[in-house]
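User:
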Amino acid sequence: SYIFQGHHVLKKNSIKNFDVLIPTATFFEKSNTFLNFFGFIQKTKFILFPNKNIRTDFRILYIIFKYIKTL
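Assistant: Predicted structure:
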């Protein structure tokens, strides 16, 4: 089975390829640190507050791992 976790899908037809869709906050709604193509560390800061029903990637993974641990 295929799981998609993210804030957008590139093609509408590709939604059919996933069994589970887990929506997350967009890059406008979360602060991040990443390594760019040239090898420089970059930081971003959120500019919008996410909807109260939206969770960040880390929070979703935390919930999944916590659930798996209880099995």
